[in-house]
């Protein structure tokens, strides 16, 4: 019978390494390889002997010696040495093994390989030679993934290690290339930090998309937007618009997606190309109203990078072209459609229609707030909240009903109140100069300069990121303005309208206003310069702004320029690193916090670890509170693509001893988690609403509304608590004004856009939403200047699905929502408390007076004898009183019974089972979380060109083109109308005499 023996020491095996026989040494190494995980400490003393065997070229099992040495060093914690000998082990290092040792070394191997690959890609001059053994291990890891069909893992590793060949191979060999392409595009946009490498990957993706049997032109054009390749987009549009009906619908869909995702400059370049390929000159986009009001303004919009011939051609109206053939006329009509869509007219008009049609604002909230506040600051806050609640709805009824209350606004409060009309009428571009004429500068009868400045600012808010001809009107007004209030509003309005266009004439005019060295004008001019040069990284512009910022003595100008500089670096990623370094080392704290905003804008939505590390370092180390606050706030701009990470990053900062850091943490949560209703974010914000410092409470209240926008009790139960909290803070007479300001704004944000908009810093197509990011950044400056609060309206995006036919009209069609109607329903409106009829209260009778009256009554009885008839007549009165009491009791019992019956009926109604789905009419309100549950009904007459779960504007293919279409009737916008004014009555008959 054999006995099992257990080794207690490896000394015997180690001693075999000293034997001269090579076979014994090999046996010893094989044995040591098996027992190294147990006796590594003992073997470590002889590791030098094992290294000698590995380094001896005559030894035939060098790879085995290297493997044993690698394992020993792994247990010793010397991972670099362990990796070195693992590479020497060659094929003996089994990458398929799942042991902790192999997993650790593979990770170290991958880190080393990635580091070398990145260095070689970014610094080609000092490129390092790649260790062939290291590359061999990585290749074996790739091969293993291919064998197991783990293609998503291959894509991740390939992007991390900069292996484009493996990335392409993974997509081509996958079972579903189109799904793999969609996944790869998503990973590329969210995880690749290097702008240069990301562009290389996107070019590969476009090639692969085009190789599909039916190319996905919609996704290809999204890639081209990131590559800033307007020519390729124009070529695709030209190809599709000349194809069959399905191709034409795709072209229109791409045009709508382009307007949502691309910059004004990009869209203008595509429009310029369409002008060239059109059979006849395209019509000018100038509206009739603008021609009437501003006939003298020259067309300067198309000056940038466009020759004089093209500009003249664009400005000329489309002449009648009898020489065109039928095919050319048809093509011309289609190109005009594309041109107008790229101009944004259709999108803005449809969103405006949707917001007006579905306006569910609860006016009682505003009424209660108005009645509760008396402070001038809270008055302004209520006006701003009203504009948020009615953003894009064109409903200014609350202001009309409270004109006397509104008239209390004076000076800059008047400026803010007038500008709020721009938020209410956002996108209402038709007749804009007519219905805003009361508040615009006029030569004939000069009005309030604050109203006129606010009016110009309002025009910018209405035309934000869609200036068109209004930029020329604003430019003309700014040139003629002599008052600082009008210039302030003019600069802000012009910056908003010309956002991202980089038009040199506009930039020059803003610079002229900056150099006037007026604090109020300079602040707006500095900010507007950044808006015009948004994301251009224009070195000359940045140099001018930075030099002036370092020289000026005005803090307001410095603040405006600081935000403007940050905006010029929007989306530039590592290209901004040098400027960030320069700004963050400046002695002026305002320029240092400009560096933080610049970093946030450059890496916006990237989640870049290096940028986050820099912001966190400044947040805890800078000596200035403003810089620390801005650094923490900026974290929100970096993390909005992964909102669940933000609470983890700022959780400790939210408990900081420094109130500015706590405020920054609250705003970071609001920005990153906007519209998500994230529980973790609310858990951090809730205690901050009771913070001892009032401006921290203000930030927490605003941030909570940003997180909870469009949430109801089912999607986020906490929303009821926060609604009650806002009301409590506003109605509490003893609460601080700063907290009240935050609570009033929070109410406006929570029910923004008639409860039909959300806040999202990324578009439906996955792009960073430039307009929303800019709006959110400038909104944060309300800390210094309240009128900038209106910029938040740029971040409001309608949550809708709007189906369109080939004529860009809305057919009557339904979308199926596979969720209970109550899940995404509107929050219930407040119920107005009914005034109860006041009953007469019986006067209190004291015991002393009662006794006195009793005595007097007894005396009268003795003095006067009562008649029997009188006594008899009293009896029926007593009886009637008793019967009345009985009847009253019966009525009360009846009322109670009726109330009980009503309650039972209500309970029965509630008990009725709710449907598991809902059919939504076009245009439909569909919240972000609801999108994945949306489908087209099977029996529907229409099919969508792209997946309806993406939301937004969707082109529909009519399966029954011969049948008559039932269309949704357009709805009229609200607001003041000139034609509504009654005509004066004719004078009474009279005789004229010459006396």
From TrEMBL:
Residues 799-968 form the 26S proteasome regulatory subunit RPN2 C-terminal domain. Coiled coil: none annotated. This is 26S proteasome non-ATPase regulatory subunit 1. The keyword Repeat applies. GO terms for cellular component: nucleus; proteasome regulatory particle, base subcomplex; proteasome storage granule. Residues 8-276 form the 26S proteasome non-ATPase regulatory subunit 1/RPN2 N-terminal domain. It comes from Octopus sinensis. Component of the 19S proteasome regulatory particle complex. The 26S proteasome consists of a 20S core particle (CP) and two 19S regulatory subunits (RP). One of its GO terms (biological process) is regulation of protein catabolic process. SUPFAM superfamilies: ARM repeat. The keyword Protein biosynthesis does not apply. Keywords: Proteasome, Repeat.
